[in-house]
Write a structure and sequence with these properties.
Elements (H helix, E strand, L loop, with lengths): L4 E5 L3 H12 L4 E5 L5 H10 L2 H4 L5 E4 L10 E4 L15 H18 L4 E4 L4 H12 L6 E3 L2 H16 L6 E2 L2 E2 L7 E2 L5 E2 L2 E2 L6 H12 L1 H9 L6 H15 L4 E10 L5 E12 L2 E5 L6 H21 L2
Parallel strand pairs: 1-2, 1-4, 2-3, 4-5, 5-6
Antiparallel strand pairs: 7-10, 8-9, 10-11, 12-13, 13-14
Helix pairs in contact: 1-2, 1-9, 4-5, 5-10, 6-7, 6-9
């Protein structure tokens, strides 16, 4: 079997950690590309030299030349400026628009059949940028946010109840940020509705903490933002695609009428398989949840209008 090829754009913390997790699991050969000379090459070489010890037998290389990324099966875009304390995701908008636009043009040129997973913030607007610039069909352009936000949500519930995080199931809808929409009605612990196990106020506090999950890490680190959990989220999505698992995960996708939302990227449950997004799963929402999702979509629409995508 010919191994898959993944390009990771951006050799910063998130990109390097995605590359490391991919080679650890021997999921693909990896190319890390970055504008900084020597950084992707050095990190890739260091990872390659871990292979004999860790027992992985795939190749990884770093480069500054997009020609080396040609014919990738999947491309992860992590390049961009990171958030700093006190900086909103929206502050990043214009800076990262230019980065993602330029990156996507090169990626689409060298790997026209690839699936794109976008991680750069502000996520929803950046994935819309990649979609418009690449001209790819919507099943091949996916934003990573819901898997990460859901992981945070599940972690906080497990911590509060002192149960295994593997028993906690649920998902987060909407935009990545202050307007995200956790759905407690679909949140269970070993099949038990979470509302039966904790008071509403406690769950509300957890939802609020989930919304601020990224900022909480940023404020603790002081310099930089989260990268361990975001990279895990990306790799779970890649695994579902490469292994054709038909896994239902919350991802940021282009809606064309689903949930009553048109022409904008919003986080909803999707089935991920070998073709990328194979189905958008529409769940019944209460009027309150529907309003929250519409508000989330409206917030994304504001951003994409600013950058004209």
């Amino acid at each position: 079997m010919i191994r898959k090829k993944v390009t990771v754009v951006g050799a910063g913390n998130v990109g390097a950690e995605v590359a490391q997790r991919l080679v650890d699991k021997q999921m693909a050969d990896v190319v890390m590309v970055d504008i900084l000379e020597g950084v992707p090459q050095g990190k890739a070489l260091d990872m390659l030299e871990s292979g004999p010890i860790e027992g992985y037998d795939v190749w990884i290389r770093g480069t500054n030349d997009y020609a080396d990324t040609a014919n990738s099966d999947l491309v992860v875009i992590t390049a961009g400026f990171a958030r700093k304390p006190g900086m909103s995701r929206d502050d990043l908008l214009r800076k990262n628009y230019e980065v993602v636009k330029g990156t996507t043009e090169k990626v689409a040129k060298y790997s026209p059949e690839a699936i794109l997973i976008v991680v750069t913030n502000p996520l929803d607007a950046m994935v819309q940028t990649a979609f418009k610039v690449s001209g790819f069909s919507r099943n091949r352009v996916i934003g990573m946010a819901g898997v990460l936000d859901t992981a945070r949500y599940r972690t906080f519930i497990a911590e509060a109840l002192n149960v295994s995080v593997l028993d906690v199931h649920g998902f987060v809808l909407g935009g990545h940020g202050d307007t995200m929409v956790p759905v407690p009605r679909y949140t269970t612990v070993a099949g038990i509705p979470v509302g039966d196990l904790m008071p509403r106020e406690q769950l509300e506090a957890i939802i609020k903490r989930t919304r601020n999950g990224g900022a909480e890490v940023v404020n603790l680190l002081k310099t930089g933002s989260a990268f361990y959990a975001p990279s895990s989220a990306v790799v779970e999505m890649i695994d579902a695609i490469f292994e054709d698992r038909k896994k239902i995960l919350p991802c940021t996708v282009y809606l064309e009428g689903e949930y009553g939302i048109h022409g904008v990227f919003v986080g909803v449950p999707v089935k991920l398989g070998v073709r990328g997004i194979e189905q958008i799963v529409e769940i019944k929402l209460t009027p309150e949840e529907q309003i929250a999702l519409q508000q989330s979509a409206a917030a994304v629409k504001e951003l994409v209008e600013i950058i004209g995508v």
